[in-house]
Amino acid sequence: MIGAGLVAAIGALHVYIMVLEMFRWDAPRTRAAFGTTEEFARATKVMAGNQGLYNGFLAAGLFWALAEGVAGAGFALAVFFLGCVMVAGLYGAATASRRILFIQSGPAALGLLAVGFGV
């Protein structure tokens, strides 16, 4: 099922983002990915860790939906958590970087369509 694959991929993406924000925020590759300076990373490390925790919660919800079956009992969970990812991405695109629209909201919208249509 394409929907389940997208839910899994989006969940994995959010685990990756969580790791970057919580544990690798001041690493050179993470700073390059987020376009931040060493000084900014140092100043925002606690905030980024908190943000990473929220990304972890999104991933956990998506994996919960997978465990329940996105075509069955996990359908509502998948829709809720994909919706959360999409809204978070829209907010991030409006306030931080337009790139977030394509990295976060776009895949979530595709996931919602796939899960909603049962493909």
Account of the 3D structure:
By secondary structure, the protein is mainly α. The chain has one domain (2-117). It contains 6 helices and no strands. Helix 1 runs antiparallel to helix 4 (45-73), helix 4 packs antiparallel against helix 5 and helix 5 (75-95) runs antiparallel to helix 6. The longest helix has 29 residues, at 45-73. The chain is elongated, with a radius of gyration of 15 Å. The model has no long low-confidence stretch (mean pLDDT 97).
Question: How is the quaternary structure best described?
Answer: single chain
Structural class of the secondary elements? Answer: mainly alpha
What is the count of distinct domains?
Answer: 1
Question: Gap between N and C termini, in Å?
Answer: 6 Å
Poorly predicted runs are none
Bin the helical content: over 70%
Number of distinct beta strands: 0
**Structural Rg:** 15 Å
Shape: elongated
Helix count equals 6
Strand content: under 5%
Q: How would you concisely characterize the structure shown here?
A:
The protein has 119 residues and is mostly helical.
